[in-house]
Design a protein that fits this description.
heterotrimer; A mainly alpha; B alpha/beta; C mainly alpha; B: alpha/beta; Rossmann fold; four-stranded antiparallel beta sheet; globular; C: MetI-like fold; two-stranded antiparallel ribbon; 13 helices
């Protein structure tokens, strides 16, 4: 490194530089070279291709949804919602499956929400970073990835057979609850983690215990985030078919159409109809159904799920707008 | 029993790092006790030992004995009982996302006071003590987090006083607030001294000189010197102390 | 005049305060019990994962212990569970069905999904980005039975008209539907991975004169490759396990497909189609649980790999 300064070689370098230096005047300073042209072209192409990919996802989707709506239009009416299916399901409405879905979702929510929220509280507030916590996290991730048909098998093995519930509303709801649990756990955790740690420390310094802190400060300030996750659970449970197929859903059942009985048609031990199952049945199992009836059922199911999802998205946007700190 | 707090050979390690090295120190009752020292010298850790909030830092290991009001803090089976006897004010004001009233009533409620009339008197008293009452008396149901920084710090003080602690610890309380508010709170502290022991951690040397009866100087987790404030500032024994109080390093 | 309502209001207020106080006392007293409950719920996730494996395994066990010839099970094309006197349980055709439909779906979903993820994360901004993300989220919300319905009723006739195939429900139909179903998860996980690349990388590359496209494929792709891989794997996991859509859209023929428009059948569709008819406790019923185990293990491996890949990035970042 400490070689004497070589005048000759440095002279050569200067010469070299001199040859390479392009004389610039103002007019040439901002002129694009061919490389830069190429860059611009590739950037345009890339932008276009990515845009195309996005449009290929969204435009046909919109088209299909519109098509479904157009096809369903003749069937859609208030009486379609409140009438029971009749004439071997080739006529009538969707009241019975609609009520069935309502109760399935509601009962599964009653089971999954408390367990899921408390599990989220445990993971975010109590669990220390040790191997046990890591296993729980892994379990939550994997539970979220278990296919719905496996949940169906589990439901048959555990609730229908082992717990002796038989094929019933209760067994189907339990299966749905297990399926949606990881969604609730994950979103609860995220909502809790958004509450700054400083609040917790302030409470602990005031002599509040962990549980008091969670109850009085952490939960009230994350409740809307938790609700967002719970609502997402509702949307997922309402649309699922496979898990209830063998645990409690039934192709057809005759139900009262009027009076208070129409709202409580199923007992916990009864099998029930469900909207998603009804769509499956109408489109593949029954002959001679008018297409409008099938499309109508599909549209109501999509509408239900999208409405619930929009509620969740709206709640999230609203939340972001009103923070307390 | 003649001291409010006694540290007996206390060391704290965070993982491999030593935060406090064999501190032995006695803090007398009903005085203001100043703790000064450069950044990272273990002042905050010392405070956290007093009410055992160090428990919430899983990596921290404590050895030695801390005695508060004659009892070893490690021996408290109900740690909340200990924390209720010690009020804490931290550098950055944290207004809880509750109303001002609820902020101050928080600790008493957790301690089991639910009588409305009693709470109202208590809240007003604490806000008076923290010199915040005049500014917020007409809007007690406003969110505590909406107050200005200086007001929030006084709210924190009112909250720390709300469970009538025997010991009040302040950790660099003036960092995030303006000088006028700082002077106000300093006056409050001088009044409060009649009722409770105050431990004042500060990096403003002159603040310690103005307020403290006794002062301890910490550096790099070691207790360098401790004594009457005037003596620490005018005739320190240790060369390091002298350089620090004269502002030559820090 | 105003007095009476205000006193009653004050009275109810006081009543409510007292109720609140009582509630607080009760909640404080029950603290140890509540903490145990919380802990128990936290562990429930582990319990459920093992529970799922245990109960599916329990139903499958009598077949696994000797009655089922595993070599035949995995290598035979003959799936005749109700044949007399000797039923045949070979899932090779079903396995090939699952793999082919998943593979074809991924061939479509991966470029589309990654393209959309890049567009949303790098080429769009502000309101446009929010709208696109919401649309993708809504795409993810559409239930699988509706996808099946779309494949059966809408896509099927289109395929017949375009290709002249005898049936519209086939491999191609199923994989298009599966692709559309697994795209949202690829987009959202992929976008997260791209967003996780620090902006300083982008700024550094920009200041060196790189175009946005060069940033994407020279900087972002290498930096986010684990996250993108995880996105693809999660998409694969979803596609393998999907049931209702493939049940309705793939045509139900037990065969190895020779062309795009051959009808096929998958593992999951077989379970869904036959579990209702199989007699509980009979070999046919138990074999379906064995198939369930195969699907479970397949998705478990895929998801676990995705999780490990994601953890891999986190560890790299931490170092």
């Amino acid at each position: 490194m400490n070689e004497p300064f070589d005048a000759k070689s440095s002279e050569n370098q200067y010469k070299l530089l001199g040859e390479l230096t392009v004389p610039l005047d103002d007019s040439e300073l901002f002129t694009a070279t061919s490389v830069e042209h190429w860059k611009q072209v590739t950037e345009k192409i890339a932008w276009f291709v990515c845009l195309l990919a996005t449009l290929v996802l969204i435009v046909p989707m919109m088209a299909i949804l519109t098509y479904l709506l157009v096809q369903a239009w003749p069937a859609l009416s208030f009486s379609f919602l409140v009438e029971n299916p009749h004439n071997y399901m080739t006529a009538g409405g969707i009241w019975a499956p609609l009520v069935g879905t309502f109760w399935l979702v509601w009962i599964s929510l009653l089971i999954a929400a408390p367990v899921g929220v408390l599990a989220g509280v445990y993971l975010n507030e109590y669990a220390r970073d040790n191997w046990c916590t890591r296993i729980i996290n892994l379990a939550v991730v994997n539970l979220a990835g278990v296919p719905s048909i496996i949940h169906a098998l589990f439901g048959v093995g555990a609730f229908v057979m082992f717990a002796g519930m038989g094929r019933s509303l209760l067994a189907a709801s339990c299966t749905l609850a297990v399926m949606t649990l990881p969604v609730i756990i994950t979103s609860t955790r995220e909502a809790l983690a958004a509450v700054p740690r400083a609040f917790r420390e302030a409470c602990w310094n005031l002599g509040a215990s962990r549980w008091q802190t969670i109850r009085t400060i952490v939960l009230p300030n994350s409740i809307s985030g938790i609700l967002t996750g719970v609502i997402l659970q509702v949307s997922r449970a309402a649309g699922e078919t496979a898990p209830i197929l063998f645990t409690g859903a039934v192709f057809f059942s005759t139900l009262p159409e009027y009076g208070i009985q129409a709202f409580f048609p199923y007992g916990l031990g009864d099998r029930c109809m469900a909207l998603s199952m009804h769509l499956f049945t109408l489109s593949t199992q029954v002959r001679g159904v008018t297409p409008a009836l099938q499309y109508g059922t599909a549209v109501v199911l999509i509408g239900l799920v999208l409405a619930v999802n929009s509620l969740s998205i709206g709640l999230r946007v609203y939340l972001r707008s009103r923070k307390k700190w | 029993m003649d001291h409010a707090i006694q540290f007996d050979d206390v060391s704290v390690h965070y993982g491999g790092k030593t935060a406090l090295r064999q501190i032995t120190l006695a803090i007398p009752k009903k005085q203001i006790f100043g703790i000064i020292g450069p950044a990272n010298s273990g002042k905050t850790t010392l405070l956290k030992c007093i009410n055992r909030t160090l428990d919430f830092t899983p990596a921290a290991r404590v050895s030695g004995k801390v005695v508060v009001a004659g009892r070893d803090v490690a021996g408290f089976r109900n740690v909340y009982e200990l924390r209720r006897r010690v009020g804490m004010v931290f550098p950055l004001p944290v207004g809880l996302p509750l109303t001002i009233y609820e902020n101050v009533a928080y600790a008493p409620r957790r301690a089991g006071i639910h009588d409305r009339a009693e709470l109202e008197v208590l809240v007003e008293h604490c806000l008076h003590q923290a010199m915040l009452w005049d500014e917020v008396s007409d809007r007690l149901d406003m969110l505590g987090t909406r107050l200005s920084g200086g007001q929030q710090q006084r709210l924190t003080l009112a909250r720390a006083l709300s469970h009538r602690p025997e010991i009040l610890c302040l950790d660099e309380f003036s960092i995030a607030i303006d000088p006028v508010t700082t002077m106000k709170i300093e006056d409050v502290l001088l009044e409060l001294k009649e009722q409770m022991t105050i431990v004042l951690v500060t990096n403003l040397v002159q603040q310690a000189r103005r307020l403290a009866d006794r002062t301890a100087f910490l550096s790099a987790g070691t207790l360098i010197e401790e004594g009457e404030t005037e003596k620490i500032f005018t005739q320190p024994v240790n060369r390091l102390t002298e350089r620090y109080v004269n502002g030559e390093f820090g | 005049m105003n007095d009476q309502p205000s006193t009653t209001r004050r009275a109810t207020k006081r009543g409510r305060a007292r109720l609140h106080a009582m509630l607080q006392v009760v909640l404080d007293r029950t603290e140890p019990a509540v903490e145990w409950l919380i802990r128990l719920c936290g562990w429930s996730a582990i319990l459920l994962v093992f529970g799922i494996f245990f109960f599916v395994f329990r139903e499958a066990l009598p077949m696994l212990s000797g009655k089922l010839n595993l070599t035949e099970f995995f290598t035979s094309l003959e799936w005749r569970p109700t044949a007399e006197p000797v039923p045949h349980y070979g899932i090779l055709a079903l396995l090939v069905g699952t793999i082919s439909v998943t593979g074809l779906a991924m061939l479509m979903a991966v470029p589309l999904g990654l393209g959309a993820a890049v567009y949303i994360s790098e080429f769009s901004s502000g309101r446009m980005r929010e709208i696109l993300k919401v649309l993708i989220e809504l795409l993810a919300a559409i239930p699988s039975v509706v996808w099946g319905f779309i494949g059966y009723m809408v896509l099927g006739p289109i395929i017949i008209r375009l290709t002249g195939a005898p049936v519209g429900v086939n491999l191609l139909n199923g994989s298009i539907i599966l692709a559309l179903m697994s795209v949202p998860i690829i987009v959202s996980v992929g976008e997260d991975a791209l967003k996780a690349v620090p902006d300083s990388y982008r700024e550094a590359a920009l200041s060196l004169g790189a175009s946005r496209w060069e940033i994407v494929y020279r900087v972002l792709f290498p930096a986010a490759k684990n996250g993108l891989l995880a996105a693809v794997l999660l998409g694969v996991g979803r596609a393998i396990g999907e049931t209702m859509a493939v049940l309705m859209a793939t045509g139900h023929a037990i065969q190895i497909p020779h062309s795009l428009v051959d009808p096929i059948r998958t593992l999951t569709a077989t379970i869904a189609a036959e579990l209702g008819e199989a007699v509980q406790g009979e070999p046919h019923y138990r074999v379906l649980f064995v198939i369930g185990l195969v699907v479970f293990v397949l998705t478990f491996i895929v998801n676990l790999t995705a999780d490990l890949v994601v953890k891999g990035i986190r560890n790299e970042r931490a170092v």
